[in-house]
Amino acid sequence: MSTYKANLAIYNSLTGQKEKFTPLHDGFVGLYVCGPTVYSNVHLGNCRTFISFDVIYRYLTYLGYKVRYVRNITDVGHLVDDADQGEDKIAKKARLEKLEPMEIVQSYTVDFHKVLNQFNNIPPNIEPTATGHIIEQIEMVKAILDKGFAYESNGSVYFDVEKYNESHPYGELSGRKIEDLLSNTRDLDGQNEKRAPLDFALWKNASDEHLMKWPSPWGIGFPGWHLECSAMSTKYLGKQFDIHGGGMDLKFPHHECEIAQGTSANGESPVRYWMHGNMLTLNGKKMSKSTGNSILPEELFSGDNDFMEKAFDPMVVRFFMMQAHYRSTLDFTSEALLAAEKGYNKLMEALATLEKLEAKESSSVDVSSLVNSFYEAMSDDFNAPILVANLFEAVKFINSVKDNKATISKNDLALLQKEMNGFVTSVLGISAQQESSNDKLSPVMDLVLDLRQEARINKDWGTSDKIRDGLAAAGIVVKDGKDGSSWK
RNA sequence: GGUCUCUUGGCCGAGUGGCUAGGCAGUGGUCUGCAAAACCACCCACGGCGGUUCGAAUCCGCCAGAGACCUCCA
């Protein structure tokens, strides 16, 4: 399917247009995605971004690219709100909970991995941490200082935005003009150390009570808020690489600063294709930890939350997300999840049916163009919802074949089985729900259904229904089909 | 306040100038002892007002509503 590899189009946030994707090195893709700050549990909105990029990573791989996927863990470096004087966010939490900073980081990193694993995300190839790359960050600060785009002030180092803007367009990614930004600045910590309000910290001096700090040429301190991604992406993917992704809310200032840092340190714009996933909304508003408008994956899987009627399987949630484009906001409601659950079940049923289909002489439907439609959807800026729609076209066809209303040839059947499974399982990353199957239960159920079948043959509906109702009470659903009964 | 985005049928969501996705719900049907499930068919919407065009959900303008960013945030 090399034509689809050749025709892959990606919406580039930098240019605001869909562009034909051409990797820097033929056959290889460098992909960097901004990871989480591990000072709390990841909420569902965070997960959406990582799931979106998981699908992007999966499709690139499916097309045959060798992808190096790097996603960082931010375990230091972000400022907290105005309540504390520029104290490190993770250090603050540590004091509150009387724990070591790295203890916090460890526990939330483990949680993060667990949750993404439940969503069936593939781990990145490299998952670097900010604290593990202090040296690289210091080196980068030095490089920016050497190039004259930063200055030292009171043990801190700041990026000189106005200086940079003289030769490079600061604000090109977010569509901002430096004049507009200047007229809208707030009073923040460290303002007096800066020459200009727009300047941002590359290295920040640390006070005595600060817990996470390292020695540097400028004194004891910690790295600036945007530096880690620049340092680590450069280290593992090069001065310039193919795709950088992250949530929409990171566009400004975070990614804007990355462009400025990378460009001034390395002499070239770091990223060729910028990709931004959109937000997940709950009750029509952005899901956000700080406003309380958020839901944890665990709460969704267990049903223990105030927003949803029932519990939802991670795979159902993932499928639900696949029905919306990654660049659109997606509203999370109980009703929508319920709908997705049924659609998911229908798709999985069809996948099972596909394995049992019998081939005939010829196909009554153009299977290869059906399969091509899968590739076309995903090659058009990873349009998963179109893919899902096309997959349901295939579902309709599969069921028709099952009902002998359509036919499929041997070759087409093999093709459809390969690609249908490929797109559902490998690309979308959707698998069957983890059945709580019990080796001992299975023969017992066979026996029970056998007894019930006997009762049915004898038209003993009382017994038959008693068994069915009893099993239902135990959470087991019995379905009577043509070829006997099944349960789950 | 500044910058930007969005507004699609009962619900969720694709779609950028004519051929008008898909899922769920609903209606009808097949199947079935009944039920559930499953399957099939049907259901043709684009915030309001103007404009451009032979033709607009799709382009332009105005109005209304919603949201995002501007501050840590996926």
Would you give an account of this structure?
With 488 residues, this protein is of the alpha/beta class. It has 3 domains: 255 residues, HUPs (Rossmann fold), CATH 3.40.50.620; 134 residues, Isoleucyl-tRNA Synthetase, Domain 1, CATH 1.10.730; 47 residues. Helix content is 45%, strand content 14%. The protein is built from 17 helices and 15 strands. Strands 4-3-9-10 form a 4-stranded parallel beta sheet, with helices on both faces. Helix 13 packs antiparallel against helix 14. The radius of gyration is 27 Å and the shape is elongated. The structure holds one RNA strand of 74 nucleotides.
Tertiary shape:
elongated
Return the structural class.
alpha/beta
**Count the strands?**
15
Largest sheet: 4 strands, parallel
Q: Report the CATH C-level class of the largest domain.
A: Alpha Beta
CATH topology of the largest domain: Rossmann fold
Strand order of the largest sheet: 4-3-9-10
| Number of discrete domains | 3
CATH architecture of the largest domain: 3-Layer(aba) Sandwich
Mean residue pLDDT: 89
The portion of residues forming beta strands comes to 5-15%
Q: Which spans of ≥5 residues are poorly predicted at pLDDT below 50?
A: 79-84
Gyration radius (Cα, Å) is 27 Å
Q: Would you identify the CATH H-level superfamily of the largest domain? A: HUPs
